[in-house]
Amino acid sequence: MTAKLVVLVSGSGSNLQALLDACADPAYGAEVVAVGADRDGTYGAERAAKAGVPTFVHKVKDYATRDEWDAALTAEVASYEPDLVVSAGFLKLCGPRFLDAFPGRYVNTHNSLLPAFPGMNGPGEALAAGVKIAGATLFICDSGVDTGPIVAQCAVPVEDDDTVETLTERIKEAERAQLVESVGRMVRDGWKVEGRRVVLG
Ligand code: GRF
């Protein structure tokens, strides 16, 4: 059975593109059934439209309260009955309603080796800290900022002449491969969350 993915984006959507490309092979075991964004005009939504995947937008500012935004986003994502919801460059923290609707089935990819450098500037903080290894983390979302149980991590070197841009790009390349590999394993083989540990297969 082909697993249904809903992917949430805020920007360029290169991680989304990697998933769309992987899903073109039936053996991958998943299909992207919808792409949601928190703002208009994302390149991610354009990529989805090009692939013939339905898109939707829910902007926080269009709702009276954050809770109402969360409810609307939850209802729309749930309407696609996803097996897995993937936050790929989605710059919003979802609320309790959303987390309750997709328990253990909402993952996020982040561009640092968590628990180091959570938040919006992973590569910049890694450079500033002088670490020699950076990377990306796929994790199951909880109510914190980049605090959930870790599904997978991949490392890249930090070079002496790196800028935030060069390091960000090196991380993103590894991050996309990891996302495709891990989501594929999750949907094909299943996964369990045992406390802080995520076990695949
Ligand atoms: C990823 O590196 C993610 O970790 C970070 O934003 C980037 C999203 O890139 N939060 P894209 O939109 O998938 O190209």
TrEMBL record:
One GO location term (cellular component): cytosol
Molecular function per GO: phosphoribosylglycinamide formyltransferase activity
Reactions that this protein is recorded to catalyse: N(1)-(5-phospho-beta-D-ribosyl)glycinamide + (6R)-10-formyltetrahydrofolate = N(2)-formyl-N(1)-(5-phospho-beta-D-ribosyl)glycinamide + (6S)-5,6,7,8-tetrahydrofolate + H(+)
Domain Formyl transferase N-terminal: from-to ranges: 4-182
Top-level taxon of the source organism: Bacteria
EC number: 2.1.2.2
PANTHER family tied to this protein: PHOSPHORIBOSYLGLYCINAMIDE FORMYLTRANSFERASE
Protein name from the UniProt record: Phosphoribosylglycinamide formyltransferase
